[in-house]
Amino acid sequence: MPKLELTSHKVLVFDVYGTLIDWESGIYKSLKPLFPKDTPREEVLEKYAAAELDLQMKDPSVAYSKILDLAWVRLNLNLPSSTLPTSDAECFGASIPTWQPFEDTVQALHRLKEHFALVVLSNVDNKSFSGTHELLKSETHEACKSRYPTDTSDSPFSLILTAQQLNAYKPDLRQFSSAPRSVLPHPSPPWAVEAHEVLVVANSLLHDIEPANLHNLDSVWISRHEKNIIGTKPDLKERGMWTWRFETLGDLADAVDQEVKEARGAYMNFR
Question: Is the pTM of this model over 0.85?
């Protein structure tokens, strides 16, 4: 059986928040004032994650920014000691575009677009992602030639799919059922893609890696040094459901570059 390689894929399907964007820092910064001062960061994020998931599963038609708003209100009601005005809930919902990329994200994305079509599959609304998208564009890396057409010349993405477009929030399997249909099968080059050429790249075991596995899609777990709280699932970690694991997106880009280098070397030797 031939060795499975990263570069045997054509499409990378990206989770955004937690994988590319340090959303937990943004969430914690906004929610910290709701809780007693000695509340551990992990507890704040776990309580938020539980509220978020419940709201998403109850009504997937609600925009993600509104989910944040409602989660803030729910947490506030459950904390009698909180004296913050409910208007802060709207500020939390509007904060998504201010969440910052991980240090390695932008450069790694623009390196990867030289070899793959990059697709966003994210639990977010269109308006909020438009702000995040601006943070992931790069005029500096425009010189990195995209292998596939991208949304704009400074964007790394060839296709953007949001929960608002698909009317479903991950880990609902409808997202992973709908997303491949947006790119598979595509009859004309350069998009002629088959399922085994799609690679899911994500941090969340719950929202992305497990659903990818259930759809028989290869996956890369970007573990972010296992510091993230939201989307962790110990039983999935023990089972190792991912195809590859890297600590950062930069590490994935390095591995791809190494494969390309080795393939070129083998070709030159063969000649």
Answer: yes
Tokens of 105: 């994200």
Asked if residue 4 lies in contact with residue 243, where contact means CB atoms within 8 angstroms, the answer is yes
> Where are the alpha helices (H) located in the chain, listed in sequence order?
23-31, 41-58, 64-77, 87-93, 105-112, 126-136, 163-166, 173-183, 210-214, 234-239, 249-270
Query: pLDDT tens for residues 33-47?
Result: 989 899 999 999 999
Cα torsion for 140, 145, 149, 153, to the nearest 10°?
A: 20
131-163 as b/e: b if 16+ CB within 10 A: ebbebbbbeebeebebbbebeeeebbbbbbbbb
Q: Which residues make Cβ contacts (< 8 Å) with residue 51, sequence separation at least 6? A: 70, 71, 74, 75
pLDDT tens sequence across 194-231: 888 999 999 999 999 999 999 999 999 999 999 999 99
Check whether 188 has a pLDDT greater than 60.
no
Omega before 171 within 30 of 0, i.e. cis: yes
The sheet that has 11-14: what strands, in order across it?
Answer: 157-162, 117-122, 11-14, 198-202, 218-222, 244-246
Can you spell out the DSSP letters for 28-62? HHHHGGGS-TT--HHHHHHHHHHHHHHHHHH-TTS
In Å, how far are 29, 65, 70, 246 from 82, measured between CA atoms? 15, 22, 16, 40
What is the number of alpha carbons within 13 Å of residue 214 lying toward its C-beta?
16
10 Å CB burial of residue 11 (0-12, 13-18, 19+) is buried
